[in-house]
Amino acid sequence: DGFEEIEGLTVVDILRRAGLEAITISITGQKEIHGSHRIDVLADILFEEVDFTSLEGVVLPGGMPGTANLGAHAGVDEAIRTFAGQGKLVAAICAAPSVLGQSGLLQGKKAACYPGFEDKLTGAQVVCDEVAEAGNIITSRGMGTAIPFALSLVSYLISEQKAQELAKGIIYRQ
Predict the structure, then answer these.
(1) Maximum Cα–Cα distance for the chain, whole Å?
(2) CA angle 69-76-53, nearest 5°?
(3) Which residues, 6+ apart, have CB-to-CB distance to 72 below 8 Å?
C-alpha cells in the first residue's frame, strides 16, 4: 500500500506493450493495493504465491508509504538481493532506490532517486539523470521520469530498437 500509481502502472503498461509478461505483486496479503493517491489496484498475485525463479527481474515503484513498506518487507529484501546476485534486473524509481541502498546493492554504482533521498543510496555514485543504469541495476528519479524509466527496462530486457519503437508509438519525445 502507498505506492506511486504512475510509477508502478506506467512500467507495467510499457512492459506489456513490449510483449513482456509483467505481473503485479502484492506484499500485503491481499490482492487489493491502495495507491498513495487513493487509486486502488488489483494485483495479479500475492507475494507468497510467486515463483521468483521464473522471473527475469523485479521493479520497485516509489511513493509513500509504499517505499517504507517495501523496505520493511523481509521477502522483498531477499528477492532483490537474490536477483542482484544472479545478475537479474533489479530496478527502482523515486524513493524506492533507497530500498536498494539499505540492502547494500548500490555500492559503487551510479544511481538516481527522488530529491531528498540521496543519503539513503548507501555507497552509490548519486546522479541527477532521469535514469541511471549500472549493469543489472536501473534507477530513476520519480513520477516525471516513469516513461524513460520504463523504456530503459524494455531496452535492457529486449532491445534499444524495441524501446525506440515503443517511444514512437506512444508519441514520447517526438
Answers:
(1) 42
(2) 155
(3) none
Q: Which among 22, 84, 92, 94 is annotated as catalytic?
A: 94
| pLDDT exceeds cutoff 80 at 174 | no
Chain segment 73-83, per-residue pLDDT in tens: 999 999 999 99
Map residue 93 onto helix, strand or coil: strand
| 76 vs 82: CA distance, rounded Å | 10
Q: Full-prediction pTM beyond 0.90?
A: yes
Euclidean distance between CA atoms 103 and 145, whole angstroms: 23
Distance separating alpha carbons of residues 138 and 21, to the nearest angstrom: 19
Q: What confidence tens digit (pLDDT) does each residue in 16-69 have?
A: 999 999 999 999 999 999 999 999 999 999 999 999 999 999 999 999 999 999
Whether 94 is catalytic: yes
76-to-18, 104, 146 alpha-carbon distances in Å: 25, 14, 21
Residue 57, CA distances (Å) to 83, 98, 128 in order:
7, 18, 24
